[in-house]
Amino acid sequence: MLSAILLASATCAQLTFCSPQGNVALFSNYDGGPLTINVDQNIPDLHIGIVSYEFAVVNIVGPYADNVAAVWWAGFNGVNDHCGTGAINHATSISGAPAGTAEILVHPPATLSNTNGNALIICNYSCDIGSVQGGCNTADQIAHFFLSQWGGVLLFHRTQYGCWEDVWNISDGGNCCEDPLSTAMGELQPQAALGVSIVHGMLRVVTAESGGDPGPDGPVGTFHSGIAAWLAGTELGWYAQWHLHRACTERRVVALSWASSGARPDPA
């Protein structure tokens, strides 16, 4: 257990989680290729959406793989093996998913119009929704496509141009939260945090309301791999549930989304 807030020694993880209630994880790129998704967190009713221009070889693994309710791939399904999969059949495949959850959709119509993106779901490689994407889709189109099909809440969107890392843990998070269906939440600005420490994926935040560093047993928010936990203290008459909203940079949190209530439940 961490016993102090050591901001100067913090190392900053490039993680973004869009909502602590999220159950929709999105992955997108241009080059396709192998993508092993390790479901290493117990998220009920998890939905996974994948988009690429070239074909993708998707494999679902992990201790909570049975929680997966849907794994859909959508895109152009090009035949170029830019990522060296070695696949004999250059077409998208999905393995390891629970029976009846996998679906492959070749350039389906986009469900959201954006003049900077394609009218079909083709590919995505950035979180930019305000400039032309060179024939690919904008990130808001990708989020809208999957969320309008499934409902649910966006957990994260990992988008990049090149090949995916061979294994991506759900706990790794993403780098994009563009979601035209989301409900805006309040944000605690970074200057409100008196201290932030990130060690081995554990994030601890001391807020001005908690009166400084209270030690290991006081009202300190703890986040494991960016997933929300309770911020609660025995002397406080309120609670807040926090989650990492944007990637942190230069040893500080860019922003934390929050929701608060006058009643304080037992910490989860």
Summarize the entry for a quick read.
4% of the residues lie in helices and 33% in strands. With 268 residues, it is mainly beta.
Low-confidence blocks of residues: 1-14, 183-268
| Helix percent band | under 10%
**How are helices and strands ordered from N to C?**
EEEEEEEHEEEEEEEEE
Work out the number of β strands: 16
How large is the count of helical segments? 1
Q: Per the principal axes of the C-alpha atoms, what is the gross shape?
A: globular
Task: Give structural notes.
- This protein has 268 residues and is mainly beta.
- It folds into two domains: 7-14 and 185-261, no CATH class; 24-172, no CATH class.
- It has one helix at 139-150; strands at 24-28, 33-38, 46-54, 56-61, 68-78, 93-95, 102-106, 154-159, 167-169, 186-188, 193-199, 202-207, 221-224, 230-231, 239-244, 256-261.
- It is globular.
Name the features.
268 residues; mainly beta; 2 domains; 4-stranded parallel sheet; 1 helix; 16 strands; disordered C terminus
Itemize the secondary structure elements and their pairings:
Blueprint: E1 24-28, E2 33-38, E3 46-54, E4 56-61, E5 68-78, E6 93-95, E7 102-106, H1 139-150, E8 154-159, E9 167-169, E10 186-188, E11 193-199, E12 202-207, E13 221-224, E14 230-231, E15 239-244, E16 256-261
Parallel strand pairs: 1-3, 1-8, 2-4, 2-9, 3-5, 4-6, 5-7
Antiparallel strand pairs: 10-16, 11-12, 12-13, 14-15, 15-16
